[in-house]
Write a structure and sequence with these properties.
This protein is of the alpha+beta class. It has one domain. The protein contains four helices and three strands. Strands 2-1-3 form a three-stranded antiparallel β-sheet, with no helix packed on it. A hairpin with a 4-residue loop joins β1 and β2. The radius of gyration is 14 Å and the shape is globular.
Protein backbone atom coordinates (compact mmCIF):
# COMPACT_ATOMS: atom_id res chain seq x y z
CA UNK A 1 0.00 0.00 0.00
CA UNK A 2 1.30 3.44 -0.94
CA UNK A 3 2.06 5.82 1.92
CA UNK A 4 -0.47 8.63 2.00
CA UNK A 5 0.84 12.13 1.35
CA UNK A 6 -0.66 14.05 4.27
CA UNK A 7 0.25 17.47 2.92
CA UNK A 8 -2.69 19.57 1.74
CA UNK A 9 -0.66 22.23 -0.09
CA UNK A 10 0.79 19.98 -2.80
CA UNK A 11 -0.53 17.21 -4.98
CA UNK A 12 -3.67 16.60 -6.97
CA UNK A 13 -6.43 19.03 -5.99
CA UNK A 14 -9.23 16.49 -6.31
CA UNK A 15 -7.35 13.89 -4.24
CA UNK A 16 -6.73 16.47 -1.49
CA UNK A 17 -10.19 18.09 -1.57
CA UNK A 18 -11.88 15.88 1.09
CA UNK A 19 -8.99 16.46 3.51
CA UNK A 20 -9.01 20.19 2.77
CA UNK A 21 -12.75 20.55 3.27
CA UNK A 22 -12.49 18.85 6.67
CA UNK A 23 -9.47 20.81 7.84
CA UNK A 24 -9.38 23.53 10.49
CA UNK A 25 -7.67 25.77 7.93
CA UNK A 26 -10.67 25.59 5.59
CA UNK A 27 -13.04 26.20 8.48
CA UNK A 28 -11.11 29.36 9.39
CA UNK A 29 -11.01 30.56 5.78
CA UNK A 30 -14.77 30.16 5.46
CA UNK A 31 -15.14 32.93 8.05
CA UNK A 32 -12.94 35.33 6.05
CA UNK A 33 -13.89 37.44 3.01
CA UNK A 34 -14.86 35.36 -0.04
CA UNK A 35 -11.63 35.93 -2.00
CA UNK A 36 -9.58 34.13 0.65
CA UNK A 37 -11.39 30.88 -0.08
CA UNK A 38 -10.28 31.06 -3.72
CA UNK A 39 -6.59 31.77 -3.23
CA UNK A 40 -4.00 33.09 -0.83
CA UNK A 41 -0.94 35.22 -1.47
CA UNK A 42 2.41 34.01 -0.17
CA UNK A 43 2.75 37.17 1.91
CA UNK A 44 -0.34 36.06 3.85
CA UNK A 45 0.66 32.39 4.03
CA UNK A 46 2.96 30.52 6.39
CA UNK A 47 6.69 31.17 6.58
CA UNK A 48 8.37 31.01 3.15
CA UNK A 49 11.14 28.75 4.52
CA UNK A 50 8.52 26.14 5.45
CA UNK A 51 6.95 26.35 1.99
CA UNK A 52 10.28 26.04 0.18
CA UNK A 53 11.41 23.14 2.39
CA UNK A 54 8.09 21.36 1.81
CA UNK A 55 7.89 22.10 -1.91
CA UNK A 56 11.49 21.09 -2.62
CA UNK A 57 10.95 17.64 -1.10
CA UNK A 58 8.69 16.48 -3.94
CA UNK A 59 9.88 15.37 -7.39
CA UNK A 60 6.90 16.99 -9.14
CA UNK A 61 7.72 20.60 -8.23
CA UNK A 62 9.39 22.84 -10.79
CA UNK A 63 10.88 26.33 -10.52
CA UNK A 64 11.52 29.07 -13.05
CA UNK A 65 14.36 31.27 -11.80
CA UNK A 66 13.75 34.04 -14.35
CA UNK A 67 10.09 34.47 -13.36
CA UNK A 68 10.57 33.35 -9.71
CA UNK A 69 7.57 31.03 -10.09
CA UNK A 70 6.87 27.48 -8.86
CA UNK A 71 4.75 24.98 -10.78
CA UNK A 72 3.43 21.76 -9.23
CA UNK A 73 2.51 18.99 -11.66
CA UNK A 74 2.71 15.20 -11.35
CA UNK A 75 2.38 15.05 -15.16
CA UNK A 76 5.72 16.83 -15.58
CA UNK A 77 6.53 20.31 -16.80
CA UNK A 78 7.94 21.11 -20.22
CA UNK A 79 7.42 24.85 -19.99
CA UNK A 80 10.50 26.89 -20.96
CA UNK A 81 12.74 27.79 -18.02
CA UNK A 82 11.24 25.38 -15.47
CA UNK A 83 13.48 22.79 -13.78
CA UNK A 84 12.82 20.16 -11.07
CA UNK A 85 13.68 21.47 -7.65
CA UNK A 86 14.51 18.31 -5.68
Amino acid sequence: MKDEDDCIITGNYYEKLPKLLNSKLYDIMMHLPKTVVHHIHLTAACDIKFLVDKLCYYDFVYFNQKDLMFKVSKKGCDLPGYIKVN
